[in-house]
Design brief:
Radius of gyration of chain A: 20 Å
Number of strands of chain A: 2
CATH architecture of the largest domain in chain A: Orthogonal Bundle
Oligomer: heterodimer
Low-confidence stretches of chain A: none
Structural class of chain A: mainly alpha
Strand order of the largest sheet of chain A: 1-2
Number of domains of chain B: 1
Helix content of chain A: over 70%
Mean pLDDT of chain A: 84
CATH class of chain B: Alpha Beta
Mean pLDDT of chain B: 83
Number of strands of chain B: 12
Order of helices and strands of chain A: HHHHEEHHHHHHHHH
Shape of chain A: globular
Largest interface: A-B, 21 and 33 residues
Order of helices and strands of chain B: HEEEHEEHEHHHEHEHEEHHEE
Radius of gyration of chain B: 19 Å
Shape of chain B: globular
CATH topology of the largest domain in chain A: ABC transporter involved in vitamin B12 uptake, BtuC
Strand order of the largest sheet of chain B: 6-7-8-3-9-10
Number of domains of chain A: 2
Low-confidence stretches of chain B: 250-266
CATH class of the largest domain in chain A: Mainly Alpha
Strand content of chain A: under 5%
Helix content of chain B: 25-40%
Chain lengths: 324, 266
């Protein structure tokens, strides 16, 4: 094993160990500390119906956002791309907020379902608008996403302005990344879409690496740039939609986690994608456990805490890069 | 026809190729060929269609009329991986800030293959003179080194036809000579065909053959001594000044150098 592979393995082992520790802390911490050595029926109920599903959702959401960010930064060849730049979150937010503010509860999980439908519909609209005569071009796709995102955000603001009831507060909380309403029943569908998206992205990992070098070289290496971009866009959209539908809009992770991972292990998508899943999931898990503990019984949104933890580290890394 | 048979008789051929874009005709009935193991330069003024010719040869563009053939088959008839094993294309503008390390970039050349190639990424890095820099980020290399890293990637790709769009641009004279020697070795030792666009008349004089194009037409093609003459170059580039091109032909002693000198005041 050469030194390069050795250091990557070391980073993977360290990250997995840190992730396991944070999962244990996340499950145990909260407004009431759970003691695994004295489990009464109340503790068991809290563990099984609140802490475990919440930790699982935080891991899945953070992982999905981290991987989506890594994909989108690659296919757009833009370090500022993140899962929300495509307008997908705006579509999900509008649909979910509509459900929360107008109390739509025609079926179980109507809010996550509405969010998912909104995200997928927005993603489809972005693909249609982003398709030019040369196929799916990154600049066109990006502009379509930004344009649609702004439009949907404006509609959302309009709806929120005219809404006055209790649903408005819930909608605002949801848009800040609210994990307080998660349930085991949310998991299977979310997990299915996230695994599908991640699997698709891993199958297309070589195409993702090639797209980072530009369409001409992608073609020269035997890939069809439009086809690769389309499949990877679908993968990122599925993961983002599943994430947003489970716990609302969590910013920062999709933008920053892939950069941090690349800084330590290089840019090969075969390594960056799975590690972004682990790092993103771990960060959101940590953020959520801090958010529900530090000001208990008040809950701080996980997305806000993730940004507060991650930003200083990201700035530190940028500073280090400058001195190299 | 098996890919192995095609590879054994790789030759790039333009047969009466006509290409238009947005109702503007870029080339008309263009025909030429590049033989196996030949180092051919594509020269001409800006806007002559050099990049378009290379993109057509790479299968990035499709001609409206005529055919671009590689190994007796139209380039568009190959599936992606088959095509990548035959033809590699390096565009003029490379993403020099791509977030990869040299080793990661060079390894990508093996993507068209299921198994590892005869030429490993370590060997390719060594050939282009970047040994010891496999873990260096592209952004930390000089312009010439980055371009050589991309060339190493195409070496690992192992294509029989190498299409290079102005590979010498932005390189200083040392790197130009280094790259020239590298390409010459690949052509001689591996029988690869190299077809590259360039502006430098001195470098053009060192190639096996030069194709001079202007306004989407082949003006003249042949050995550099017969193509790069004062009159032909002056005419092709619409030069107002008259020039003298001195050609040293003793290639065994020193690679031929052409020096274009403006006759001031004429």
């Amino acid at each position: 094993m050469n030194r390069d592979n050795g250091s990557t393995v070391l980073i993977v082992v360290a990250l997995c160990a840190a992730s396991l520790c944070i999962i244990v802390v996340s499950v145990a911490s909260g407004p009431r500390l759970l003691n695994p050595f004295s489990m009464d029926s109340e503790t068991c109920r809290t563990l099984l119906s609140i802490r475990l599903p919440r930790t699982a959702v935080a891991l899945l959401m953070g992982g999905a956002l981290g991987a989506s960010g890594a994909i989108l930064q690659g296919i757009f060849r833009n370090p500022l791309a993140d899962p929300y730049v495509l307008g997908i979150s705006s579509g999900a937010s509008l649909a979910a907020s509509f459900g929360l503010m107008f109390g739509i509860s025609l079926f179980p999980f109507s809010v996550p379902t509405l969010a998912f439908v909104g995200a997928i519909a927005t993603g489809a609209a972005v693909v249609v608008l982003g398709h030019g005569w040369k196929g799916l071009q990154p600049e066109r796709l990006l502009l379509a996403g930004v344009g649609i995102g702004f439009f949907l955000s404006a509609v959302l603001m309009l709806v929120m302005t005219i809404s006055v009831d209790d649903g408005l507060k819930r909608a605002i909380l949801w848009m800040s990344g609210d994990l307080s309403m998660v349930d085991w029943e949310l998991l299977p569908v979310g997990l299915l879409f996230i695994l599908t998206g991640l699997g698709l992205a891993l199958i297309r990992r070589k195409g993702l690496n090639a797209l980072t070098l530009g369409d001409d070289i992608t073609h020269s290496l035997g890939f069809n740039p439009t086809r690769e971009r389309f499949f990877l866009f679908i993968a990122a959209s599925l993961m983002t939609a599943a994430s947003v539908s489970m716990g609302g809009v969590v910013g920062f992770i999709g933008l920053v986690v892939p950069h941090v991972v690349r800084r330590h292990v290089g840019s090969d998508a075969a390594v960056v994608l799975p590690l972004s899943v682990v790092a993103g999931g771990t960060l959101l898990c940590l953020a959520d456990s801090i958010g529900r503990t530090v000001a208990a019984p008040l809950e701080l949104p996980a997305g806000v805490i993730a940004a507060l933890i991650g930003s200083p580290y990201f700035i530190f890394l940028l500073g280090q890069k400058k001195t190299h | 026809m098996l890919l192995q048979e095609i590879i054994s008789m790789t030759k790039l051929e333009f047969e009466n190729v006509t290409f238009s874009y947005c109702s503007k005709r870029f080339m008309e009935q263009m025909s030429f060929s590049v033989a196996e193991g030949e180092l051919v330069g594509l020269m001409g003024p800006n806007g002559a269609g050099k990049s378009t010719i290379l993109k057509l040869a790479a299968g990035l563009l499709s001609p409206q009329k005529g055919r671009v053939m590689v190994g007796k088959r139209a380039i568009g008839s190959y599936c992606g991986k088959e095509r990548a094993k035959l033809v590699a294309y390096l565009p003029q503008i490379l993403d020099l800030q791509a977030p990869f390390r040299v080793g990661e970039l060079v390894r990508m050349g093996a993507y068209p293959y299921e198994r590892s190639q005869a030429l490993t990424f370590e060997e390719a890095i060594h050939i282009v003179g970047l040994h010891g820099k496999a873990k260096t980020h592209l952004s930390e290399l000089s312009g010439g080194e980055r371009r050589r890293a991309y060339v190493a990637m195409t070496l690992v790709q192992g294509a029989r036809v190498l299409l290079l769009d102005e590979p010498l641009a932005s390189l200083d004279i040392k790197y130009q000579f280094d790259l020239y020697r590298l390409l010459k070795d690949i052509v001689r030792e591996k029988g690869v065909s190299v077809f590259m666009s360039l502006h430098d008349i001195g470098m053009g004089a060192m190639l096996d053959r030069v194709i001079l194009v202007k306004e989407g037409q082949v003006v003249i093609q042949g050995d550099p001594g017969s193509v790069l003459t004062d009159e032909i170059v002056q005419d092709a580039f619409d030069l107002n000044e008259s020039i003298d091109i001195y050609m040293e032909t003793n290639r065994t002693v020193c690679h031929a150098l052409a020096v274009a000198a403006c006759k001031k005041g004429m």
